[in-house]
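pinging the channel bc i need a second pair of eyes. not urgent but kinda urgent?? the chain im working w is below, pasted from the shared doc
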Amino acid sequence: MNTLLVSAVPAFESGNEKEICSKLQEFTKENAHTFSFTDVRVETKKKFMGDVVQTLSNTSSPECRLLCLESLKIFSRDKRNMLQLEQRECIHLLLQVAGLSEETYQLNVKVITEAQKCLCNLIYNNSKVRSVCSESACVQQIIARTKNYGDKSVTWDMMFYDMRLLFLLTALIPDLRAQVRKDHSGVAILTGLLETQVLCNITDKESIGTLGAADKREVITVDQANLACEMLKAFFNVIVHVRLEELEKDDEKVWKRLGIVFRALLLSESENAEKTEEYHSHTINMLTCTLPKACVTQLIPEPTGASGGAAVYQGHSMDFITAILKFLEKRIDKCTAKHAKDQSLVEQLNPSISALCVLARSNRFIRKHLKEVVLPPLRDATKLPEEGESLRNKLVRLMTNPSTDIKETVADFIFILCKESVDRLVKYTGYGNAAGMLARRGLLAGGRGNTDYSDDDDDSDTEEYREVRDRINPITGRVEEFKPDPMEGMSEEQKEFHAQELAAMITKMSNEGVITPMAVGQDGRLVSMEEMLHRAQISDHRDTAAGNTD
């Protein structure tokens, strides 16, 4: 590699553009898949990169510019020794060539796109570059260019990399998020782009609002799907962690349009199945943010005519919610399959479950419909709650998953559907599966969490469940087979002997640190027996002291 870079020096020194391009072509061809330059001397690399940046600055040839940018893009993949690439002058030059500077001029589309790719790599890999970009008018220029996205001069690639740049900048520079949302009307801009660039095949907005699974699904192209992913990722950064009160200050009409867009995205599909799953995933990620009521109500519109879809609940089309449930169940099956490759359960499942939690809390019709689908009235109480292939069974199995994030999110979701009633949760999951969540919330002694729920959807047990209700073991959540009393036939002396033997074993394991005997405290949380005894002694001491005073 050193030899190749050194051999280019005469070409750069001569200023012969043809020779320079020949050397750059040789370099880009040989290093098309190179991501590290640890074998190159720093001085050699510095000299070569300096010459490439200088050539890019001086040349007016689109072909030469393109080769310079391709070379810089290759170097921008390596985080170490970025040298000239992290210098302010180089960043401003790249912004100018990418059309994202106040000093713009006519450029070849391929040149613009290549400069965007360089900037994406540099912003991702280097904090100094991010600092320069945040101080420049980069974000402002990206937003300004979106106004021209309908022009033929702006290609799909340019739009895609504009949105990727916006995503990276808002992801890695949190201060820019509020700037995009407040100063540049980010919610309205991104909503409009999703409507006009991604969902442009669906020209009738009213038809989008009533689109259902029973209808023929709209199909978007792979380019539109790719663009949707980048837009949604940037959009997520713009509104994540923003309080609902702040979001509600924005135009209500924009939030209604956004709700229609979300619905259309999730009820459409791409020409490519993997792309469909990808942009559906990013759409669901958006729903993990707490959204204004005006947005949520558009997800479950009142059906008109025959276009309400297959799932209608209390006058609302629930096809959007059905689509999320199908997406979640598909992910669960994929992650928990016997021969599944290593899947990050948190990454794969948490967004969908979190989105359902947010939606269930924000709209009672959604919560009640989810309760009806996920936790239907119990009929067969002979099986463990985790046994079976229903969505309820699959979710209950996840409540004891080794991943703390997964089991807590799933437990919270089912708890919300149970209107945060401990008795109802235990009924559907069994006390053993729910114990972890109840301990975390201080509800081991029973009761309920948040009580801000409607009272018109109380549980009604089925006839089959009522017949066996008294025989259900609350720990396992099912009817247990009759088992003979193991102490039947024992004398009182034998029972006392075994009790003392068990106590001795527990004491030994406790002393050796194998187990810690626990009890449920007055606050509903687990407390060690040692702590309980300590509290009791303090209480007795206070009572004695009070008696002495009297």
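so The chain is about 60% helix and 5% strand. and The longest strand covers residues 218-220. — does that match what u expected or am i reading it wrong
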